[in-house]
UniProtKB/TrEMBL annotation:
InterPro entries: UROD/MetE-like_sf, Uroporphyrinogen_deCOase. It comes from the Eukaryota. It holds the Pfam family URO-D. Residues 1-190 form the Uroporphyrinogen decarboxylase (URO-D) domain. Signal peptide: none annotated. The lineage of its organism: Eukaryota, Viridiplantae, Streptophyta, Embryophyta, Bryophyta. This is Uroporphyrinogen decarboxylase (URO-D) domain-containing protein.
Length: 210
């Protein structure tokens, strides 16, 4: 039986979350993290080979980004169905199924030797700052709360593609240690405006890979 997930060349899902009824076809819960043991095994092998001077980054997709993939199969384009899903119960239901598993996945990576776990929200900038603040950030906050309960001393890095200062304001009270800044922003201006106001480090992500 197939898994419903292919790579051609990026991730391709055979099914999409088009209605609230489709949530019944999904499983959630932290216990499912046992199916991700291969991540822990790989990270331990990498950690063993790295010199002590080199850091190891773990990562997961952000809840908003994973939702967009589940609904539209991408983080680009109009994302019309995803936008509707933020208000029709799909995002809420998806998040309820996702958060415990995602937090446990972050903890799995943290316990396997990573120095920080990054949450990569490549869809964040596709939504206006008000929508992001009111809908996406509360779910992100809950995820980080769950993760910190499991691994309180492991720093979190957060990167949101295409976002800007109006989005970042909503992150002030979240337990984020490093904020990845999109290459579209002038790093000197960002540092001047934000570094003294926030407790976390600002890092400029120059590559367009994400």
């Amino acid at each position: 039986m197939g898994t419903g997930l292919r790579y051609d060349p990026g991730p391709k899902l055979d099914r999409h979350l088009k209605t609230v009824e489709d949530l019944k076809n999904l499983r959630g819960g932290g216990k499912l993290v046992s199916q991700l043991q291969f991540q822990a095994d790989a990270l331990k092998l990498i950690r063993k080979e790295l010199s002590p001077q080199k850091g190891l980054l773990g990562f997961v997709g952000g809840p908003l980004t994973l939702f967009c993939y589940a609904v539209d199969g991408s983080h680009a384009g109009g994302l019309e169905s995803s936008r509707l899903g933020l208000h029709d119960g799909r995002f809420e239901g998806f998040s309820q199924l996702l958060l415990d598993l995602l937090a446990e996945n972050m903890a799995l990576q943290a316990r396997s030797g990573v120095d920080t776990v990054a949450v990569l929200d490549t869809c964040a900038g596709e939504f206006d700052a008000d929508t992001y603040t009111q809908i996406a950030v509360p779910v992100l906050k809950e995820l980080l709360k769950k993760f910190k309960a499991l691994c309180p001393d492991v720093p979190v890095t957060y990167y949101s593609k295409g976002s800007g200062p109006d989005h970042w304001k909503a992150l002030r009270d979240l337990p984020i240690s490093c904020l990845g800044i999109d290459w579209r922003h002038d790093i000197s201006e960002v540092l001047d405006c934000w570094s003294d106001q926030w407790r976390f480090k600002v890092t400029w992500i120059r590559t367009g890979f994400f």
